[in-house]
Amino acid sequence: MASQIFLNGEFIHRDEAKLSVFDHGLLYGDGIFEGIRVYDGNVFKLAEHIRRLYDSAKSILLDIPYSQAEMCELVCETVRRNDLSSAYIRLVVTRGPGDLGISPYICHGAQVFIIAEQLSMFAPSLYEEGITAITAATRRNRTDALNPKIKSLNYLNNVLIKIEAQAAGANEAIVLNTEGYVVEGSGENIFIVRDGVLSTPPAYLGALEGITRGTIVSLAHELGYQVKEEPFTRHDVYVADEVFLTGTAAELVPVVTVDKRTIGDGRPGPVTRKLHQAFQLTTRRDGMKVYPQEAIS
Ligand code: PMP
Fold this sequence. Notes:
Layout lengths: L3 E4 L2 E4 L10 H5 L2 E9 L2 E2 L2 H14 L8 H14 L5 E8 L16 E7 L6 H6 L1 E5 L20 H12 L4 E5 L5 E4 L3 E6 L2 E4 L10 H12 L4 E3 L4 H5 L3 E6 L3 E8 L2 E2 L7 H16 L2 E2 L3 H4 L1
Parallel strand pairs: 7-8, 7-14, 11-12
Antiparallel strand pairs: 1-2, 1-6, 3-4, 3-5, 4-16, 5-6, 8-9, 10-11, 10-13, 13-14, 14-15
Helix pairs in contact: 2-3
The structure holds 4'-deoxy-4'-aminopyridoxal-5'-phosphate.
C-alpha cells in the first residue's frame, strides 16, 4: 500500500493527509482531477493528462499554484517516493476551504494532492473473459448543464450509474444521454465493432474525450482498422460483434453481455484482443521515465 501522499507542497504519510471539512471540493464537488497510470516506470501520456487538468482548471476559474512542468515532476516524484514502477495515480485539485456558502470567492486557495497506488479496476480474470454490463436508467449529465470536458469532482452521476450496475449484478453500466444515444460507461469510453469497423460516440454526446480512447483510435488506425466517431443506440451495441470499454483506470476491458444479450460469441473478439495487445505494448514502451536510466540498468 502506498504510504507517501503529496499534499500542498509536502510528502506526508497517508494517515496524516487531511483536508478541511470546509473544503468546497468536499462540500460541492468543486474541484478537478486526473487519473494517470505508470507502466514499468513510464508515466503514460503524462503531458496530455496534465494539459486536460489545466484546461479543466481554466474552465472553472481555479488557479493551480504550480506550472504544468512542475506538476509533471510532482507526479513522478510521488511515484518515486512510493517506490512504485506500475501504479495508478490520482491527482486532485480542490477549490480549497471556504465557508458553507456556494461562492468560491471565499475559498483560501486550491488544495493539491497526489496519490499513487496499485489498482486493478476489474478482477484480472475479467480482462481475459470479458465483463457483463447493463444499460443504466440514469442518463448522463447534459453537456449544457455540466460539460464533460471538465473533469470535475462532481461524479455523483457516475456513482449512481455504478450503483445501478451493482444492483443488477453486472460489472458495469453503459450510460445514454437524454436523447437515448449511447455515451460511455460509468468511467470509461465505449467502442463497438461490427464487420471489422470500430465506432465510438462523439464527445459532443456527453462523453469524456478519453486519453485511452485517443490511444485506441491511433492504434486501430495503425493496425489498419476504420474508426468512426458516430452516434449509436443500444440496439447497435446489442448486435455488435465486439464491445469494449477504455479508460486509464479500467484500461481496455472486453464486454461480453449487455442487458443479457450475448455480444458476438460471448468471448472477447479478435479486434478487441489485437488492440489489447497493442495497448499493452505501447503503455509499457512509451511515456515519461520516472526513474533515471542508470537506476534501472
Ligand atoms: N469517461 C469518464 C466519465 C471517465 O471518468 C473516464 C476516466 N477518466 C473516461 C471516460 C476515460 O478517460 P481516460 O481514458 O482519459 O482515462
